[in-house]
Write a structure and sequence with these properties.
It is a single chain. With 104 residues, the protein is an all-alpha fold. Helix content is 72%, strand content 0%. Helix 2 (40-57) crosses helix 3 (64-103). The termini are far apart.
C-alpha cells in the first residue's frame, strides 16, 4: 500500500474511525487547494501532524477537524512566507554579487 492508498494512515492514527479519515482527507484537499505549490505528500504530512498533536492533548474532540484545518493552513502559510523571504534574500544577494563583480 502506498501513501496515496492510505494518505492519512499513520500508526498513531490507525484506530480512528472511517469518518475521521474521510474528514482528514477533506482537510488535505482544502489545504492543498489553498497551497497548490505544495506537494500532496507535504500537505498530508502537515495535516496528519497537526491532527496528531491536537488529538494528543484534546479533552474535547468535537472541534479537532476545524482546528486541524486552521493549524495546517497557518503552518503552510508560515512556511510559504519563509520561502518568499528566503527567495527575496537570495535574489538580493545575487543582485549584490553581480553588481560588485561589475564594479570591480
Amino acid at each position: 500500500m502506498s501513501a496515496y492508498d492510505d494518505p492519512i494512515g499513520d500508526t498513531a492514527l490507525e484506530c480512528m474511525g472511517e469518518m475521521v479519515r474521510d474528514e482528514l482527507e477533506a482537510v488535505v484537499a482544502a489545504v492543498g487547494a489553498k497551497f497548490p505549490d505544495r506537494s500532496r505528500p507535504e500537505v498530508e504530512a502537515v495535516v496528519r501532524g497537526a491532527y496528531r498533536d491536537l488529538a494528543h492533548s484534546a479533552v474535547i474532540t468535537s472541534h479537532l477537524i476545524p482546528l486541524t484545518l486552521n493549524r495546517s493552513t497557518r503552518m503552510l502559510r508560515a512556511a510559504q512566507d519563509r520561502d518568499r523571504r528566503d527567495g527575496e534574500r537570495l535574489r538580493l544577494a545575487a543582485i549584490s554579487g553581480a553588481s560588485s563583480q561589475n564594479s570591480g
